[in-house]
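Lay summary. Proteins are chains of building blocks that fold into shapes, and those shapes determine what they do. In this project we predict the shape from the chain. Here is one chain we studied, written as its sequence of building blocks.
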Amino acid sequence: MKNKFLIGLLFSVSVLADNEVHVDQSGNSASIDLEQLGSSNLIGGTQATSGTMTALDLDGVSMTLDINQIGSSNIFRSDAIEGDNFTGFFEFDGDSNVFDLLLNSTGLITADYVNMNIDVTGSSNTFDLKAGEDDDVSYLDLDWIISGDSNDFDFDIDYENATNYVDVNGSSNTINFLGNGYGGSTSSDAGYFYLDLDGSSNTFNIKQQSTLARDWISITSSASNSNICIIQSDGGTTTSC
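And here is the predicted shape, written in a compact code that computers can read:
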């Protein structure tokens, strides 16, 4: 398939204004590397106008997306990354940044064998990731490395044969994770969750709800005054943290 790539760059001459990158990509084997230095920058879709955000759209197999936003009060937003064998590298250094990503949200295009690495250094950042809302993202490999305080992370994944690794070093962070899966007949079809936690006053709500009870979790913690709630369920009575 012929690659079609459209990228828009908007730069304002005002000292207080934003840099904006707008992307709408359709085609296979695309490699996209975006880097923004400074504060109040945006990465989103081509329908965005200055000051109004729409979401980035990537469609195709074997794509690579490398995002580096170095600074504070930046926004990255995508509501459609669709395709197998996607590789994503996301680095956010700074405070009060916003990351919002939907992966295979419609279920109309498969998004299996996805490898994503998210590296966060800073405080008071907000991250929202949803993968496979109406379908699963099989063989997902998701890694978070988080250094900082008062960050808020929500991620909701529908998957099987997947690994989710979260490394947190900081205080007063909140992580809400919901994992749903419809795995096969062996333990190798499970959803694996690894949590390595250092810091104090952190709050973690972790729910694994695969249909065949193939979920697995490992926690290594050197933390104080933290609240960790874990629910594993394949049905039965509803419980909550």
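What the prediction tells us: The chain has no helices and 19 strands.
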